[in-house]
Amino acid sequence: MSRLKICITGGAGFIGSHVVRLFVNKYPQYDIVNLDKLTYAGNLMNLHDLEDLPNYTFIKGDIVDEVFVNELFQEQKFDAIIHLAAESHVDRSISNPLEFIKTNILGTVNLLNAAKNEWKDNMEGKTFYHISTDEVYGSLGDTGFFTEDTAYDPRSPYSSSKASSDHLVRAYHHTYKLPVVVSNCSNNYGSFQFPEKLIPLAINNIKHFRPIPVYGKGENIRDWLYVEDHASAIDLIFHQGKKGETYNIGGENEWKNIDLIHRLCKVMDELLQRAEGTSAKLITFVQDRAGHDARYAIDCSKLKNELGWKPSLQFEEGLKKTVQWYLSQEEWLSAVTSGDYLNYYESQYTKR
Ligand code: NAD
Ligand code: TDX
Fold first, then answer.
1. Ligand lying closest to the C-alpha of residue 99
2. Structurally, what CATH architecture does the domain formed by 5-194+224-254+292-314 represent?
3. I need a surface site. Which of 139, 162, 311, 340 has the fewest CB within 10 A?
4. Ligand 2, atom 30: nearest CA belongs to which residue?
């Protein structure tokens, strides 16, 4: 297998850290450069185990800084980009859309331009892989699934910014022949997820006997995929996906939020050796998210049939592993839930 120098953006975040770990360990012949701004969501503790490996480098930088991105690309001569850096939390996009427009749209265009300029004389063997979300497709009723051909209908500032970046990535393929590939994935869960997202937030609150905030009636539906299975899909698509194509990634694992929280409460009671029903008493219905999408569900048959991907873990097992991980990570949790997070939590949940 050829040597490749791959820039993974957002590698210090939740999904990015799993992708970096997979690539660094599985492909010692690749040079993996993790480019991350280290926002509140980026944490080098997530990659502590890789720090001294010879095929791993970390570069702190902001993809919104055009001059920095251009200089970096001129200097580093990347063969490929796997682009995960983003502002990723829907609630934060509702209170501060501009940050999402800057990072998710302008940041992506800076990377596209830098790759185009560097690769313009020879695009052979190059890859610009853009990681996106199922939220760009909008919201489903009780039935149906998002396929790769579903028309975009984003409804939050977050999903609109991701949709915009997806369109730009595809436009650079059509206009400049940039060798791009895109994937759109459903909700991920697993280790290293920042505890502002539903599952780690609920685990952390249950652990401390704090209320579990469930938006509205808890009837919204999400499809959940174990983060390491997303990383394995990214590995497959990076190596075998067709340029110009889009692949949907999903867990075929739909849960109503309230049912998911009850299941989580049961796992927490068992693992914390609390009497059955203790955690569920913490469930608190709070004001709904503005414009809350009702249901996401992914048809990932293209990825399964064309590239042979399948998830490795059932939800029961994945959820238990995830809870066990959070319960064993006292230091990580207290590090990431101090500072900015406390301010965010205060403003997000006390206004209700
Ligand atoms: P995350 O918020 O945990 O991590 C984002 C990372 O990007 C952080 O390390 C942060 O420091 C970095 N970053 C943010 N702004 C930056 C900037 N301007 N320059 C450089 N780095 C910057 O996000 P995540 O949940 O790991 O999501 C990663 C990607 O996957 C995102 O593009 C997201 O849209 C997509 N995605 C996420 C999910 C999910 O369930 N979490 C599902 C589908 C797709
Ligand atoms: O406190 C909460 N209470 C609650 O009921 C939080 C944080 C969320 N929710 C609900 C909202 C959603 O219906 O739970 C569901 C999941 O919420 P999030 O964890 O915030 O995820 P979601 O909004 O579905 O988006 C996630 O999946 C797609 C990621 O954050 C995105 O980055 C990804 O693109």
1. 1
2. 3-Layer(aba) Sandwich (3.40)
3. 340
4. 89
